[in-house]
Amino acid sequence: MPTPRVLVTPAAEATIDVLRDEHGPLMFHQSGGCCDGSSPMCFAKSEFRVGTNDVWLGQIHGCDFFMSAAQFEYWKHTQLTVDVVKGRGASFSLEIPLGVRFLIRSRLFTEEEEQNMAPVYDGEEYLEHVVE
Description:
The protein is about 25% helix and about 35% strand. The protein has 4 helices and 8 strands. The chain has a 5-stranded mixed sheet. The chain has a 3-stranded mixed sheet with strand order 1-6-7. A hairpin with a 2-residue loop joins strand 4 and strand 5.
């Protein structure tokens, strides 16, 4: 089994369940912009369009996770874990009204893990290879 690039904590899964019940299918995007742009943002899947400047890293709890290609260059050697903490972020992410915010915890991949990485796709490749 390939090494996953992105994981999710049980607490974040519980928040995703609440959001999915209210908003339907969800997706995550991390742009790498300033301030909260460097945090993972949760959107209704139909409300965010990905393109060739976005990289699909995998799925967390049934939600696609994308990152801007420029940001991925900085993070490609790390395994990301989406977590949730109390507090209000200053973004448009769906969890904000719940009084929590998603954040990324990370660690470097081991050499062994890097030999067996899960594939990544840009936005167009994602539509060709991942979407059924």
